[in-house]
Amino acid sequence: MYRFRYEAVPESGGPWIRLLELEPRSSTDIHIQLKNVKLGEHPDFEALSYSWGTDLSKVPIWCNQRKFSIPRSLWVALNRLRQPHSGQSRLLWADAICINQDDMEEKTAQVQLMRQIYGAAKLVIVWLGEEAEGSHEAMQMVKNVGEGIWQFSSENQSMLTTFKRHQELVLARLPALTASTWATYWALLRRSWYSRVWIIQEVASAEAVLVVCGADEVSWRDFWNVGCHISQLGLHTYFPTQVSYLAELMVVGNAKESFRRNLRRPLIEMLFQFRNFQATDPRDKIFALYGLLHSDCRAGAIQPDYSWNPEDVFRKTTVSILEAECNLDILSGPVNGYADLTNSQSPSWVACWTMKDTPSPLTYQHINRDPQFQASASSQYNPRFLEDERIMEVDGFILDTITCVAQPAIPMQPPTGNFAWIKSFSSQCYFHKLFLDWERVVEARSKGIYFSGEDMVEVYWQTLLGGFTTFTDLNTNFGNPEADAKIFYRTLFERWDRKHRFYLYLHKTLHWLPGVDYLCCGVRLIFGFGNILLHSINYILGRRTITAPGPQFSEFNYPGIWRRIFRTEGGYVGLAPRFADVGDKIAILKGGRVAYALRPVSTRWRLLGDAYVHGVMRGEAFKEERCGHMLLE
């Protein structure tokens, strides 16, 4: 029997796509028929959203009576979606089959239709995978709570007057925090589907979405609502190691809501917002977002073209955005200078969106908010490139030289398994010593006054936040939003610092004791178990009320992750990329809203990344007459 070979998709009178007709279950073998259809004729089909996964093995199926190999994850999905033997065929679209993955020209053309394909499907099926790790229990919980939320919302017209009652009813349906169901729920959110960059477009474009895991099905409405309420009620704060997984669900849901409301967002904003999502093909980190762009927001975007290699795609995208925006915001992305200081293959200033372990951007911490920083005042960047766009010419000046750096803040992986508490304890010890080192570099407990007139403790806590002290999504603003937000963050810091100072005192007093770090962190962990213990007692006594611990300072100091605190020769204090070191320079560049860490390389410079420098982020140090030409390689 011959193996299946693709026939070209028609080019005239289109656009044309392929659909697969999944035949009913007649044996263990899966049989499909591929057919070409005009997208404009509104075919009645469903689209599949799934993860290819890490298992690269292929499984054979029968396509048009010929053998055809597909990824195992897709085979499992199709096997689940097959109708019974007496049922009817099912018309589906799945990328690994409906696009010839070996034909780059076809792939380029079909990828540009993805938004239309998922928008035209009568249903988008989100396939999370087979039943595992208690997924049935988790899906049943989501379905139960989601239906309750929807029923209550539809019966009550005024949510403002019934919000408290609404919370009580949601809490009544949610399991106790000590219940094993929560572990199954977080396991469900850890599945690989949530990390794919393509799901943003697939879910956002869809009219109707169904989430399927094993034999269980839940509507996207319920799945999304449950996640929102867990977040709104603050219940995720009881599971700090799982917060990132809930955040991915929130990002996908928010993207769908923005798309539904027809909000127009430029490419640079979406690249920052979805930077943590991954793709099997590095080029898809850019191409997967193209379909979400409105025609009037495609400045800086390049059309999908799989004839380019990933390095060309990232470089062309960076150059295109720089030319369209006339500012340096893109240099707050995961530039090549972050990871490999000896890499000569790609310029240091090119944003490489597949790079992991990079800090959050200082220019796009708050999407849809007015810019907080303007280090170069109102200046603009004039795009200029040399040597086939490998050298970037900028105008600016060196502000100062780094003379002291602390340890970089490296996040620990969320602990899992039987000995998770040991990993958590180790993480606590690491951050305990880290903050001692950061205080030392800033001289936070000294009696000195910063050049801005602030005491060093004030400088320290604002630097921990990366200077983001004027925005808060919490209801704390009564008069002056900026002033009230600053009071809010200062209060959180003082609450956190009171605990930290106790451990600092313990550390200094018992510095002679072997293992003093472990002693301090052991005491910290014992106190940290208090909320869970209190809830367990309430649950045993039949009290279902759950009180979230409220916002914590540690929730907002994420700008310091993957960065290190530094001090300069002139006394400036700030945050720089983790590879910045003594002797590197802090620069102010025209068109840049933040400062930048540079390393001299002969007569040129290598960009290490963006930097926060306390007291200069609103143009206080910018001098037009000091600016000169600088070449970034």
Automatic annotation (TrEMBL):
Q: Which InterPro entries match?
A: HET, HetReg/Transcr_Mod
**Domain Heterokaryon incompatibility: residue ranges:** 45-202
Pfam families on file:
HET, Het-6_barrel
Q: Which domain of life is it from?
A: Eukaryota
Q: What is this protein called?
A: Heterokaryon incompatibility domain-containing protein
